[in-house]
Amino acid sequence: MNLREQAQNRRGEQDSQAFVHGGSKAYCAGSPVQPSRPLSSASVNPADRWLAKKLLQHLGHPAMRIKLWDGRTVLPESGQSLGTVHFRDRGALYQTLLNPELKWGDLYSDGRVDVEGDLPGLLDEVYRGLQRGQRWGWLEWLNGALSNRAIKNTLHRAADNIHHHYDIGNDFYRLWLDGAAMQYTCAYYPEPGMELEAAQVAKMRHVCRKLQLKPGEKVVEAGCGWGGFALYMAQNYDVRVSAYNISREQVKYARERVRAEGLADRVEYVLDDYRNVSGDFDVFVSIGMLEHVGPHHYPVLGQVIERGLKPGGRGLIHSIGRNRQRPINAWIERRIFPGAYPPTLREMMSIFESGELSVLDVENLRLHYARTLDAWLQRFEAHTDEVRAMMDERFVRCWRLYLAGSRAAFTAGQLQLFQVLFAKEHDNALPWSRAHVYTDA
Amino acid sequence: MNLREQAQNRRGEQDSQAFVHGGSKAYCAGSPVQPSRPLSSASVNPADRWLAKKLLQHLGHPAMRIKLWDGRTVLPESGQSLGTVHFRDRGALYQTLLNPELKWGDLYSDGRVDVEGDLPGLLDEVYRGLQRGQRWGWLEWLNGALSNRAIKNTLHRAADNIHHHYDIGNDFYRLWLDGAAMQYTCAYYPEPGMELEAAQVAKMRHVCRKLQLKPGEKVVEAGCGWGGFALYMAQNYDVRVSAYNISREQVKYARERVRAEGLADRVEYVLDDYRNVSGDFDVFVSIGMLEHVGPHHYPVLGQVIERGLKPGGRGLIHSIGRNRQRPINAWIERRIFPGAYPPTLREMMSIFESGELSVLDVENLRLHYARTLDAWLQRFEAHTDEVRAMMDERFVRCWRLYLAGSRAAFTAGQLQLFQVLFAKEHDNALPWSRAHVYTDA
Q: pTM of this prediction?
């Protein structure tokens, strides 16, 4: 049995519809959420209030109140407040202090912490506060020690990880992603005021122009999501695409769609890992997969690309990244994206150095991702009743926090979005400049 | 005495005109060149011919003949030849085999090796041959061991290094650089057929557009050459510039020119090291200095930038680079650019990671540098009589080889040219896209 068959067998008998409705349990595990959880009856003592003040201080004095379980509040130094974080019991406050990165998300999802006021605005404020340079000292160290674990995405673990996130159910993602191509990656807004649908089409066009796709070329896409970009390339640039993905739900959706569009002769969706890409190709493209690869595996990715890329070929990798090496937010890694890691440009170089590839162009689209997340969050909030019916309250809170927190991280410069264009290092059939990306032919 | 004064004192009494004519001795040291050196009278034995064949094999069978000192030739495997490399004595062949990277340049400069036919074409052919994957085995190891040395550019050594190369004499550089702005860095050819002058102006404009200079802003330029770019920025973008350089000859030239242009109130040329940049600034720009900084010092450069860059500020570093870490060509480092080192993007990240800076945009202009070097080489060849009169024959041969070899290295993808645009990582006043670089306002 080859690796692809193994992966398919592992998914084999699972009923995808059942999985959708079972998704929330696998997702944000913990005790049942209690939105109407009663307040703790424990009285607030001076130590509790002192710790709440310490928390504000460590967060860099954001414009935020803390409300304790007896209803009394601790005010921010400035007196100004965008909203209130409500700790509903003593444990919630103490757990937040001990391991804020990991615990706060769970406490919020569980309803043991609540936010009154503008959650996205408050998260932006907290990220900005943290950057004003207050250090957590031993808390920071402890937080790091409790949160980090090495990421080793073997073929099996990779499949599990992707299943965890992307197989929640197409119906769920359809509620808040763009209707144009179901793109669950950063959009590109040539005009800042654009609608999400137009910005996702603009992103696909932007990538194709960077890659200078030519009719008849063979494209390999690694990590194709619901297949919208592969379809777009075939429709608009007359190329043949082999699009790889290890999410069974997504591939099923993509295959149905490509048949409906009558393009099944030009786009092939392959339920397999990027490491099993075979044959040669003119173009390699990967949008939003690298975050799930793990830096240990970048040299292999580079070799996969070099092995197949024809002379004169080009490639583009689009990924969330960082300016400096640090682990992914522990809560996101445990509850949302197991195995995920946003690399620095330095780390990404392992792909290109291993593959004897030459980096031609890097673009950082961080603020475009903040805007994309804003659009997703608005749509998500407009559909919370449906999400709650489909999943449960914990799931709604968990995803709200994930979307708003990610938006804050991109806004604050904690996360970057890199598009890296490359070619074989000895090729001279390179784009002469980047003018073609910005001027209509 | 501060560092600037020390550096000035070190140059103090030196007569620049005398230095110009003494330049060639300091430059390509060795025995006097003998262009009419007689052929060796030693007879060629079978071992010599075997070694000559081995050399062609190790070079990946380039289309090149080898002529030995008895006048007999060794033909390439293909039978096709772009020209002939002539070893005029046995020692020249043996030294080339033992340490080709370092020795061949000296042997060529000395006239102990000659090239009949198209030197740039032959060098291109050799670089391409080396990339076909023939390994030198123990020769490669020996070559590396004999060639490498660590680069520690202290303030004093940096001044010596820069003096060695840039203070050869303005009259010499004026013969073959562009007349527009004396730019001794990669030009930008929006249209491939452009003249060098237009392409150097286009390069300056390209950098200014990436940086989005605004009237009244304060710019720090680190490593300003003959000052042409600082002048261009002040003239075209109405900014104030402090331009740093440790080459006394270049600063003298730049100061005279800025006075003649009546812009001395807006452009200040500072004879000092980048490490002594003081005050704050809206824009940091450095074109062709990083190659002389050395990777050990990148964190300091990052801190210098971060210390002075105002909120909302931008920066751009333009540098020769590599795809994978390896030492600079040993001959270039010893004879042409002491202390120089072209970094990988991975190594460059030490600047940005140390300075809490965010990379916004990277562009690789490798083929533009090949074209620039082609233009320089043509002009240089048109002025060899003047260069010979100014310097000597060894100098002419040394520079011909340097320019043609650099052109080959860029053409073959051995060297890259990176422009890296960056900002402080928490700034959100970023350029929204790169369209403004390519569309007229």
A: 0.89
